Records
---
Amino acid sequence: MTEPIVSIRNVSKKFSGGVIAVDNISFDIDQNEFFALLGPSGCGKTTLLRMISGLETPTSGQIMIGGEDMALTPPNKRPTNMVFQSYAVFPHMTVEQNVAYGLKVTGVAPDEIKRLVAEGLEMVKLTHLAERRPDQMSGGQRQRVALARALVKRPKVLLLDEPLSALDAKLRDDMRMELTRLQETVGITFIIVTHDQDEALSMASRIAVMEKGAVQQIATPVELYEHPKNRFVADFIGKVNLIDATVTGQKGKAITCDAKGLGKVELTSASQVGSAIAIAVRPEKLKIGKTEPKSDRILKLQGKVRDVAYYGDTSHVVIEGKDGLDLSVNVQNESREGGSGVERGQKVWVHWAPEDSIVLTE
């Protein structure tokens, strides 16, 4: 095992008025990892990133980078570089001058600056725009200038604070792939802050989900999506149906529970009799049919189609069940003619396999 590049040890940050932005968190980030800090606004993710960079000082705890305690190391002496949401490129400088700026400030020799700038521009595919100024470029191109400027200094850790939030949807998708390619090419640890689940899931090798200054779960994208630790993570990562239930019986690894809108349900879990749980199931795991499925090995209910939203490749269908249970279903639009194949007011059956259910106790 190699030593982690960043170690967070019992770090807290309190602001005036008793506001706790980060609450006693500890975890490691590995070398050459693409790590995401994900959570809603105000969860503490940007404050944590700023503490890693040195722009904020922890109230308590320790931050180690490359095995060294950063407590007395100012931001400009840390082996990190940050790319901000606003890009922060200099409007009066050309692309080449922007990328060279940090190297000049630190006294790198002119010949070495020229070589590193050329490498940086090639890395982000901007060699042909070296003489342009930022106001002559698109948002995506300005973002790549900011990336090149940060990367030419060869930091051990690149910090990205909501770097794609100012871009339009299509460009954001393109830049996700670009950032992933860049990280693999340069072999530097990337730490990105985002509130966009799709962004984190598509780029990061591991994700820390934060809420109210605390880390709820750290895992790979697949692990977070398919095996969330609690209701918050399940609800925040992608779309999910949460069905309240009470455990009424237990035998070995199997439980019987009384679930809202479903009645008696048998699932696999270690939950105790009498405990309240939530049955989580992702919309793409549900199937819609016009007739009752015959199998006894599935979970099923009859309901009425309340809403249908068309998204091109998929349709999002909301089914009204009994006892106030609404279920969201993602339907793949495989036909150019039919869309989801259902319409508002139609009675349908919804069913799914028990193993596609996630039992949440927290």
Note: The chain has two domains: 6-235, 239-360.
---
Amino acid sequence: MSYRVKLALFLLCAIAILFLADTAYQALNTLSRLNVVEAERDQWQRPSDVIQALDLRPGNVVVDLGCGSGYFTLKLSAPVGQNGRVLAEDIRRLPLVFLWLRTFQRRQRNVSIVLGEPDDPHLPLQGVNAVLIVNTYHEFTNSQPILIHVVQSLVSGGRLVVVDREPRPVAQMSTGTAAEHHEVSSEQVESDLRHAGLEIVSRQDRFIQNDPLNENWWIITARKP
């Protein structure tokens, strides 16, 4: 092997090492920032009350639909226990990669990562005890296909808990609609859930009123008959 070839290989290896080192640094930095942001979110999101609404038991299967980087996924791991399962679903690959890293780091082996599609979250049929949808419902371009899959996945008596932000008064919107502001009314979601065949257990329109943006959050708990 000539000197020039060896030099080229050396340079390529050096570049690859530098790239991997930078990528690893960026990933660790992101994980660290996620922990800080989520600690702040704990102060207003009321995660314990949200999880309580799911009525989980050890051994249950629960879905975090639209899980992102796993704020609720990581909190759902303990309530279902080692014999339970948390299905963390999202349609975006990058947040799921970070969630996988976080579960590996924390040794939460009862979490499974699920890459879904806009109209199909790829849930198991009739094997799920509860589904959680937080700050995601407003992103659905068409909620009915998603709700059909959710209902099909739930066991009889299984729960669906939806938490999202109430649209602001029109006077407070400079431009755009509620959908463009990532908001959806509890009335609309309740109607959607009833249309999908779910029974409404409870609805609280003033669930969170002191988030960092001074927006109002509601929570709806429904069950499959």
Note: The helical segments are 3-41, 47-54, 71-80, 93-106, 143-153, 186-195.
